[in-house]
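Table S2 (continued). Query chain:
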Amino acid sequence: MAGIGTVLPRPISEEMASSYVDYAMSVIVSRALPDVRDGLKPVQRRILYAMNEMGLTSTARYRKCAGIVGEVLKNYHPHGDAAVYDALVRMAQDFAMRYPLIDGQGNFGSIDGDSAAAMRYTEARLSALASEMLADIDKNTVDFMDNYDATLKEPTVLPAKIPNLLLNGASGIAVGMTTNIPPHNLKEIARAVIKVIDDPEVTIEELMNIVKGPDFPTGGVIVGVEGIKTAYATGHGKIIVRAKVSFEQSPSGRERIIVTELPYMVNKANLVSKIAELVSEKKLEGIVDLSDESDREGMRIVIELKKDANVVTVLNNLYKHTALQTTFGIICLSLVDGRPQVLSLKRMLQLFIEHRKNVILRRTQFDLDKAKDRAHILEGLKICLDHLDEIIKLIRSAKDPETAHIGLMQRFGLSDKQAKAVLDMRLQRLTALERSRIQAEYEDVIKLIASLEEILASERKVLSLIKEEQEELIKKYGDERRTEIQKDGQIEITQEDLIEKIDVVVSLTHRGYIKRQPLQSFRTQRRGGKGLSGHRPATGLGTPSGSKEHDFVQQLLICNTYQSVLFFTDGGQVYQLRVHEIPDRERQARGVPINNLIDISSEEKVTSMCVRPMESTSSYLLMVTRKGLIKKTLVSEYENVRRSGLIAINLQEGDRLLAVDVVKGNEDILIATRYGEAIRFNLSEVRPVGRVAMGVTGIQLEDGDEVVGMGVVRNPAAEALAVSEKGYGKRTDVSEYPRQHRAGKGVLTMSVTQKVGNVAAFEVLNNSESEVLVITQKGMVLRTELNAVRKTGRVAQGVIIMKLEQDDAVVSISPVDVEQDNNVNS
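Corresponding output:
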């Protein structure tokens, strides 16, 4: 062995590794992790033990926290006073601890993140439940060790009649590991302890019938049970915790979201500030006012919404972007025999039961030893009373107490303790009444000894005592759950949850600007009105020559924000967007270039939009080109549409894709041309083809003519709506169009004259109560009732339905379902 002062060479890597391991174990065992038996970290245990030693029980008067902290620092925890006071404060906070172990008086902080007052101002004592943690600590129930300077003894663990690790949980970060155990309800955990005692083979599923899940002091709502089940089975898991909210109406009729409970450890003041910040940055839409009305009666955060806001959508956005929803990562890591282990719920309960068994056995042995000592003394007193005269004579004749002591032991066979007890006995105990009391006490002690020995000899009796303790705890401290558990709640918030489901009008201009607007923003007008400006014209945009040609709305699509839209280009490509991904813009706004949303090339132009149907294996996409070709393809062929696009149809040179619709495949179709011709035939004549196929002839065209519209007949009472370039329109019963075979020339659908102009748009109306949107080159939009458009025969020219400026012309129309419009946001 090297002498003092000898220097031993050692690689620094070995020294660093060894020293770091020592440091890490010190942090793990002596600072950061709780013991599985009492659920306490060393500083917490020392605070409770010191307060107990100071006599600060739940019935004692409060004492200054500064004195308590000083006592802990002086005797047990030689670290900074801030660490001790912070731990004391936390054990007194009813929003941090499900069952506070310290009864505080004064300012101990708030859920708003306010700090506790200085320790010289606050006072504290043990809570009633903390007394259960320390019960029987003076009966040799736990091991003690030297304090830091070996002047006192401190407990290595508390007797802990309550399963504190599960009741109050724990959190801590050690070296290379962390623990995060949620708090639980006392009734549930105590009953689970009883269940494990009654049925050692109990399963996690059976335990979950008793322990529903964590029970946070701040309440809240746990969404889903899978995370709870995983955590209870493995010791690891994640649970989603949301604020508890309700809804009410303000005096002005606006909807309000009322927050009454927050997820565990969420700072209320920071939450309110974050919501206000997101609203000001326009990252949270639909909120008009925010106030914190919390008082002594409880928490109340009021979020007032705009009149047209959807409550569910706003709430989902709050869950997504703020601490109204949090994820609690459960890691049930604690010290078992001084070593960190991740434990399941059942294992934690078993280890607590083992601890209580050990405590009860040690307590019973202590009481037994004490009872036997007392019985031994009482036996000596009985001998004394039986030989009273002789003993009095012996004591009177002895020259000193020591002689009397020895004489009693030799003459009557008394032990040292018995002889001392006889000599210490007061004269009043020589009365007949006292003699009978000694006899009665002796009999009681003998019965107690027998009872204690039975406990030590029977594990069943020990377990029965643990069960009785838990039943007593339930009666004294049990309360109802604060945290609600939604078993069938939606855990993950999808993008759709953040979007208000409303009917919208998606518009696409000739120059490729797209936007969406609420359908209700277009009010109904009478026939002959001038319309509303639905799109700001753009001059000189996208034209190399810088011409002043006005932009105009090319297409309108009525859908809802949860649907997807397929975009078909004149070159036969298809792209896809979710409706909510299309920017919402004001009525006068231009919109955004569609090539900012999809990867469309500069040579392509979107000519048709179509809502993707939910059913893709029995529905078809029907396509019609300008040159009269028609193609029918299963929607399932277009399942994986990429942002870069897919081929939708192969086109002949010079042809362009005109219109697309979703069909079942056996309906009648009407195709109309610019020169006023139309053909009707059944789609069964068009065989389904693949995605990249070209299609077949739908209608034969005259030179210079082209297809301007098509419609699917879905109602025997359907009508055809034709609108000319100069604003003339008419309705005609579809029954006036004879059914022909595909590839015919068709029949007249509108009388084309210089006054009326060529046919600009054509639609089939399958609902007689519909309205229609009429769009011009200059972006004017007219919404009018279809009943106001005169019904005439096929060869009529119709009536004027929209007054146009000299250089304007109708370019497209879009029917509106009145019933659907009336149910927007319902």
